[in-house]
């Protein structure tokens, strides 16, 4: 059965929540949001999902719509309560990244000298708390040397090197999972550095390396799994019938 690169990315994002249990899924971006919903409908039925605002949903409306458009509400989670959930570790996040270095330090705050940045971004937001309290994965829709850099300009999310030197409070619950991009799935080796776990169908290890601003170990990298027929049906008919995923990963 034919599938698109976007659909490969959605299933790869979905797999990050596999066996997560009853945790709140925090998904930033169209592909992560679709992945979380697909996970709930397939391998992770205990995953807790919100409509993106303040409602927890047992059945969600199509991607891009809130509880007002339908679905089944099962609980109310106001913004202030999210911090209680976060601090107990009962949450798993897939965030974006404007910059990532080889140890998984993430920047979503500013580009350039922080005292006089050339570009102001959204700020550190919840990245520090996420990365020291629960598992955090990243989604990069445009794998390039502009994102994967030798050194991030501002540390928003804590990488493996800084967690190791940051003392027990930084290390205890720090867990970086994987980085899903439009080209590949990356994970971290025993030394805490990013490496290539798999390349998407039609992509080579060399292409991924050429689009990365530091060396990546591609030894043993396989091919990212294709979505099953049932996953494709759910993505296309239930999760994202409007094909918003194709706007984030064209082609």
Automatic annotation (TrEMBL):
**Record flagged with keyword Nucleotide-binding:** no
Q: Which Pfam families match?
A: CoA_trans
Give the residue range of the signal peptide: none
The family database entries (InterPro entries) matched by this protein are listed as: CoA_trans_fam_I (IPR004165), NagB/RpiA_transferase-like (IPR037171)
Keywords assigned by UniProt?
Transferase
- The lineage's top-level taxon is Bacteria
Q: Does the keyword Transferase apply?
A: yes
Cross-referenced SUPFAM superfamilies: NagB/RpiA/CoA transferase-like
Q: Name one GO molecular function term.
A: CoA-transferase activity
Under PANTHER family, the record lists: ACETATE COA-TRANSFERASE YDIF, CHOLESTEROL RING-CLEAVING HYDROLASE IPDB SUBUNIT
Would you identify the family this protein belongs to, as annotated? Belongs to the 3-oxoacid CoA-transferase subunit B family.
What protein name does the entry list? Acyl CoA:acetate/3-ketoacid CoA transferase beta subunit
């Amino acid at each position: 059965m034919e599938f698109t690169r976007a659909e490969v990315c959605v299933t790869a994002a979905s797999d990050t929540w596999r066996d997560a249990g009853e945790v709140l899924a925090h998904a930033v971006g169209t592909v992560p949001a679709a992945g979380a919903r697909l996970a709930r409908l397939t391998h992770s039925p205990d995953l807790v999902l919100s409509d993106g605002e303040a409602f927890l949903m047992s059945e969600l409306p199509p991607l891009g719509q809130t509880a007002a458009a339908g679905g089944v509400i099962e609980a109310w989670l106001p913004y202030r309560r999210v911090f209680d959930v976060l601090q107990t570790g009962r949450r798993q996040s897939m965030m974006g990244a404007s910059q990532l270095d080889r140890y998984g330090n993430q920047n979503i705050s500013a580009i350039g000298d922080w005292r006089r940045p050339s570009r102001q971004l959204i700020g550190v937001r919840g990245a520090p708390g996420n990365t020291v309290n629960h598992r955090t994965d990243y989604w990069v829709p445009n794998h390039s040397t502009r994102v994967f850099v030798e050194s991030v300009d501002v540390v928003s999310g804590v990488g493996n090197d800084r967690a190791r030197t940051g003392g027990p409070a930084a290390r205890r619950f720090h867990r970086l999972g994987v980085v899903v991009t439009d080209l590949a799935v990356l994970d971290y080796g025993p030394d805490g550095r990013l490496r290539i776990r798999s390349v998407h169908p039609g992509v080579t290890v060399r292409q991924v390396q050429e689009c990365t601003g530091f060396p990546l170990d591609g030894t043993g990298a396989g091919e990212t799994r294709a979505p099953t027929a049932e996953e494709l049906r759910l993505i296309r008919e239930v999760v994202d019938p409007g094909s918003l995923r194709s706007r984030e990963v064209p082609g």
